Amino acid sequence: MGAESQETHGGCPVVHTDYRPNRPFGSYYKLLDAEREQFPVLYNDATGDPYWMIQRHDHVLEAFHTPEVFSNEVVQAINWRDAIFFLPNQVNNPEHANLRRLLNRWFAPAAVRKAEPLFIEHCNRLIDDFIGDGSCDFVAEFAIRYPTDLLLQILGMPVEDGPQMVKWVEAIFGGAFGGEGGFASVDAIKAYYDTALDSRLHDDRDPQTDFLTYLLNAEIDGEKLSRETLLTICMTMMTAGLDTTRSALGYIFQYLATHDDDRRRLAENPDIIPAAVEEFVRLNNLIMQSGRLVTKDVEFHGASMKAGDVVSLGIVQACRDPGSSRTPPPSIPGGRISTAILAGAPARIAASACTWHATRSSLPSRNGTSESRNTRSETALSSPTVACSSASRPCLLSGPWREASDVKIGLGMITAQRPPGADLTDQQIYQDIIALAVQAEANGFDSLWLSEHHFVDDGYMPSLLVVAAVAVRTSVIGIGTGVLLAPFYHPLRLAEDAATVDLLSGGRLLLGIGTGWREEEFAGFGVPRTALGRRIELTVEAVRRAWNGEPTSAAEGAAPVRVTPQPAGGRRPPIWIGARSKPGIRRAARIADGFMAARVTPVALAEQVGLLRDALAELGRDPAEVTVSVHAPVFAWPGGDAWDLVREPYHYVEWKYQEMAAPAGHEQVPPPLTPAGQRELRSAGLVGTPEEVAALIRQYRDAAGDDLHFVARLYWPGLDRDVQREAIRVFASDVIPAVR
Description:
alpha/beta, CATH 1.10.630.10, TIM Barrel, globular
């Protein structure tokens, strides 16, 4: 069995636990928990191909974000030589990022939210089939049918083919742990979609609404995807979606059937059902591990790994790790790794709707302790028969449901400031910024924003080269400049630099620009502080011409030139303009792709949005063409000590901005915070419990008309590093879902 072994390899204990045999329900989690507590990294030799087991939350997250050492070429440590090839899982960047961008059009959180009514309607329709009976075989009548029917619908295939698809998927995941028929079923699914793709070549279907037609027309770097790539993507979608969704639902309802107190708690507090679903997913993650191939010799937290070794990144162990400050105890929803990996939005929606029903009935359990084939399928064999009440279904606009608004959440404003007394070097601060960017992406933020100022004694970030560094360490998060001070850049150099960053990021740049306001900066660069509005307009005009491939001259008497390279995929990165005054807002309406408000109340934001939309109407522009964004100081923390934690960093940042406006001479240390100053700061910031902060952000959302890119200024120079990371995690797990 293995956890008792004293043998070592590469500095770590050797274990012999074989995860392939059948075991009683839930026993895999107990085994993995025990082995995690034995040692952070283990060496497992139970199969013919030994592998390392990385088990602590922070170590697993670190490995996920170190692809130069831990490569995607192996994605399953157990039986890795016979593993099935999935896409985009099993390729590295840039191929991985390119494929993810194509699929995000259909499966990114924003796209899924738009389809939420379809998911809920299908969920309710399945419940209607058995609600009159008073009970059901939950797995057979719902958990299998729901994801199968939905995925076939999304992929544009007949729902009637569901039973055959289920058989193929079960054979694949049986084969993943040594069973027979896995590769034959992969071939069968590919043949099924090969026929469907052939039919699409002769159908006149819209690629905007038909997934297979979209894939057939998709291009990367000007080339269409190969047929084998298309077939592998379709096979991956079906296998991953069916298996994890079914099993996740089964685990949730097994728990509800055997824990009546918690079921009643959810019945009495339906607003916490979505958070409970996140906690279920964290504690019973159906993706046990993700394999990686070691690309070079490395010492990793006590383990001497060699190039060519195989590693298991223990997702289950990480999500249940009580020793990590970023893994919540069981009473707190969270588990960022599970959320990032098991991105099953349809599963979450179904689980929330079904839980809503189940909490209004008693849930007798049968066969809740039966044996199982493996961790993936044990739920299908052990889930209880679940009784459903005849209570009315949840309405889309009430109860736990609300029509999704188009709200995106950014993290900012990254400034790299080092307050007096800070014990970090500049190098450590910049390294932390990259780590926070990686965390923000893993935690599900839509964007990350970096700021710019010059000649500031606390090291305020003067160079947006950091944007390029963030681009190469992330893959899907939007990267914004908040804001780039346009008067200090030559327009053609700006076009070149922005295009380069856009290429490095694969088309994720959001170019926010502003005029600047510090006298010291204009004097230092020798730039006159006159006609700044006109200068912004000329800059935007020149940059866009350059990105269109037109010969462009940005100065009187200068020769027209063509700027190369062009931005990623022939796109034109959106240009957002920061503005406060009426002329500035009208300018944004005239020339920008986005309007950036800053440090305003919801009432003031509503007034600015009104001015913007009036100006857009006069210009004949569609309001949807211009994104509305706002950034505000934010700090959410469970309990009542949020203000105590952030007060000093908040005071420093606000004081420093005022001090930076002085024409000459700088104070390095802020004066003591007076009671009046403290009241003023608290009234201007969004500080409190996650619930309080979410309620305040919803006021901004409502002021913008439910269509907003809210940038949470969560970066606090001088804040304890662990508190900073945890605050970001808390915001992601407890605030973002309540805002969207």
